[in-house]
Design a protein that fits this description.
The complex is a heterodimer. Helices cover about 30% and strands about 30% of the residues of chain A. Chain A is built from 16 helices and 37 strands. The longest helix of chain A has 28 residues. Chain A folds into five domains: about 60 residues, Nucleotidyltransferase, domain 5 (2-Layer Sandwich), CATH 3.30.420.40; about 140 residues, no CATH class; about 120 residues, Nucleotidyltransferase, domain 5 (2-Layer Sandwich), CATH 3.30.420.40; about 90 residues, no CATH class; about 110 residues, Dna Ligase, domain 1. By secondary structure, chain A is α+β, with helices and mostly antiparallel strands. Chain B contains ten helices and 20 strands. In chain B, helix 7 crosses helix 9. The longest helix of chain B has 29 residues. Chain B is globular and about 75 Å long. The chains are: A alpha+beta, B alpha+beta.
Chain lengths: ~675, ~525
Amino acid sequence: MTPRGWRVGIDVGGTFTDIVAVSADGRVASAKATTDTADALAALGQCLSAIGLDWEAVGDLVHGTTRITNAIVEGRLAPVTLIATEGFADVLAIGRQNRRNLYDLSVPPKATPLVPEEGRLEVTERVGPDGAVQVPLEKATITRVVAAVAASGAEAVAVCLLHAYANADHEKALGAALEKTHNHIALSHAISPEAREYERTATTVLSAAVMPSAETYLRQLGDGLPGGINLHMVQSNGGMASPEAMASKPLGLAMSGPAAGVTAVAAVVRDLRIDLALAFDMGGTTTDVSLVRDGEVSITTQRPIGDTPVRQPMVDVRSVGAGGGSIAAVQAGGLTVGPASAGAEPGPAAYGRGGTRATVTDANLALGYLGDGAELGAGNVSLDRAAAQGVVGVIAKELGVDPDAAALGIHRIANAAMARAVQTVTVERGIDARAATLIAYGGAGPIHAVSLARELDIARVVVPRMSSVFSALGCLTARPFYQQQTSFLMQSDAWDTVRLERVIADQAAMLSTALLNAGHARRDLMTEVTALVRYAGQSYAVEVPLDDSGDAQALGRAFLARHTELYGYTTDEIWEIEALRIGVGLKESRNSLISVNSGSGTTATRSETPCLFADAGWVMTPRHDRGSLSTGDRIEGPAIIEDRWSTVVLPPGATLDVTDAGDLLIEVGS
Amino acid sequence: MTTPDPFTIEVIRHGLTQAAEEMSLTVMRAARSPLLREAGDLSSAITDADGLLIAQGRDIPMHMGVMSFTVQEFLKHVPADRLAPGDVWFLNLPEIGGNHLPDVKTIRPVFHDGRPVAYAVSLAHWADIGGAVPGSYVPHATDAWQEGVRMPPFRLFHADGPDREKLDMLLANLRGPAEREGDILAQAAACRGAVERIDAMIARHGAETLRLAIAALHDRSARQMEEALACLPQGTFHGEDFLDDDGHGGPPTAVRVAVTLSNGRARFDFTGTDDAVPGPLNTTRFIAAAGAYYAAKALAGPDIQPNGGLYRQLDIITRPGSLLDPPPDLPVVGGNHETAQRIADAIFLAFRDVLPERLTAGGPTTSGLLLFAGRDSRDRWTTLYEVHGGGEGGQADRDGMPVVRVHMANVMNTPVEVIEQDYPLAVERHALRRGSGGAGRHKGGEGLIRTYRCTGDNVSLTTMFERRIVPPYGLAGGQPGAPFRVTLERADGETLELSGKTHVTLQRGDRVTLESCGGGGWGEPGNTTTSKEPTP
């Protein structure tokens, strides 16, 4: 074994940890294990030994984690003291004043603010929207508030002053003073330099609140890993970052897990030369959908996590409450599926752990797609078909239909719910979903992919190589890439190329620091800029790539073309840049994608079992072991392709081809 | 053909709901005026061929109730045989399925086999609809014509695009024509998107299956509502609540309702409500229905899919000549959100003795509207239509939350940083109004304090708010919340309290401080379990 010759991707999810490793000479190993949260470092080591490696063999470790996401969703957050402009300490408690549920009076209308009243401090100062200082921040004020922060005893401090995106001097002065006594400081202009005080404050406070635990985790890894291993983290935007960079901006890890999967989709579709793809990751409780266009992931800065707006560049993943564990319920003669879920505990009735209500997984078992007695995951669950048929039968009885119709119906309604997520991500970007290829991964994705594609009039599905450890594969395809979105107002009739270039250069220099610190040469770096453009007075901007020229006319033409695509009209009015999303990454950029060596010889059929399909009825269906598939194999539906972690359902009329890289290309037919 | 299987029905429900939600998304993203893009004062719906509502976006209850009538009333004036594919019709007349002039509805038919089979409806609040005062809220209006441009149903778009002459005619009567044109195009774009979705559903399922599925969805909601209403106490219950005045500074005006629950139906009889008033607090019978729809759903079945079937179980009776069914020449602009909320309050109060544990004490049932208008550096009209939430009322098991919108309304605030960028205004303070929540076993939420300083010349300010004189009520022995108060401090130091329906001109340096109402308390104060901020 070449010392330090292996690149290793490890994605730690809530339930499973995936690992994929590739050696300098192209050998590939992968494994899946149950996530052990008690000792993170030991758990990573165990993963490594599961594929026969030890730390000595590892050169680069690329790590994705749901740790930060889970901390946010479960509310495991450090207390934060907030410093705000005088008169604005209550911004968090006021929010946007709208309520979550229109009709249910019993539901609290909004979330309780993360910083209680006693933790909200004010300073006398004021900056205008143009960045001009209206009220200076006096030294005495700084001294007083630093003392008050110390007295509050909070572990982390968030500073969010009005219009700090336009002039950050006051925030920087407070930051410098606080640094002497506090380790965990989040300044709003550094976290999210954009207008809209509630969203910026909420993001900054959340950032501060996860800082202590993120830093502890990253330090544990850094201290615990043997020297000589380069540790990289997968960020929410799908890029890699150094642990040091993430310690000061831990919200960059908030969507690390899903981002790794979508990054792998981007790599696969570049390899397969697919222009338009939809990443489709169906889990137990939710399904995540994301758009990949021309091999690039879609980025958003508008997505909340839990109840908190998180204004950071992150992969635009849309979730719907439909997954394998989603519960089917009869109400007034109608059937709904989800969003209530049986989760992993008790799980579907078929798990035999006390689940008593029919779920999507139970329906898929009753339909014959999942194998009776099949062992799931690490082998601690074995599927009980009779139990699944029992609970689906109850639904059938309540509806007055036969059990077959009920099972098919539950499968279909889950598809309808997931179709909405697909339609949302495509409509928002003015794209026709029918032209896309569905890339299905995750535990349940490949079961539903073909029937969902048919529902959406999508012609092709890909179940990619290593689909069951896909996020770990994504870790290995990520490239170093840092990104920031910043407010920048410039109207088309007052264009100032110099000002534009200066802002881009400033931001790029800031973003380059981590890359230069990591030993990369400046000449190897490249800057990517997306302008967020709108008509003067609109609020939602259109994303338009900005080329090197900074040419107003070229940008204007691109904007009008996108606006027509999205909304079907343009006008003669002036337009404006509202914000810039600036990214700096490595030029040589992406690591080439791993292929899976396919076996040779004929495809082995393990068995034949009856499966029920919507248009064909019960059909004897061959079941193939995915590991036995060979390059160039063609399989006509009906067929089931399964391995320990996932099941591909190929209904009659669909055709599957195996590529030499191990991807399964499916023409869904009809 | 028989009713489709329950699975197809559910698949169609998902599809229609998605289409309606996408409409709202499109309007918000493409619209020009901040009221739509920032605050989201808009709603979207799909109706069946008869105009019965079948799907809605996650929007504003007040709009949704009204939109359940819009297409039905429209079809009374424009028979379906006058419609053509690609048409987009605009209308805003209160008496034709409307509420007030600024809320403009667009209707686009979905055609199949030469006949409309469904309608896409977009409602958007236009920041100006003409009339006597910028922003088209005219507190002193004495008739309907002073409130702005009145649009009976008219075809503004054909299949090949807008009718330029009609569009110019309309825009010539509005302040800020460029901004308004953007909003108009956004609404048309939203309707177009919905029609494409429904066309695709027809291609997949067939028009007849779609029709039958819609009928089955109506039936399902009707049956669920019937069951839910039967679970409430049966009998007739009386409730009343009062507007601060008659719109022109006169005495408080009563909304009275007798709610009769029996046999799975609810009857809302507003006959006892006071007569129509001279000021712009009158509203339409469609708003009366919207209030009843909202309250019935909140009380009986928050989770029931709202559609024409649900509404079938409800009967609404208004008295011609009353506040809720006025002669067509009276002004109505404020009634849309002020009187509408009073309708919901009166209905809830009818149950104060029999269902107190289901009710929320009085909250900010007013828009708390300050409407600033002026000209920007390019000499174009800019209008800030800012609604202000207040403290939620307490409930049997929790305190009220601070600063929210309740019941019929759910429009957001505008970020201070956006206000200061876009308008001749600075915001000096944006804070909780401490001590404004009413005492109680569970206290009411705190209201809001916002201080605006005028940084331009000749900025027009219109107020339209309630709960200044009649405060948010307590329930089950709880105390009322602090009433609304808006104070104008002139640059020279002169200070005066502004009434809830007034119009003034601000000059540079003038300050306006808004203190929104606190929520009412629930239960006798005493052994309180209050916390500073309630936890969910």
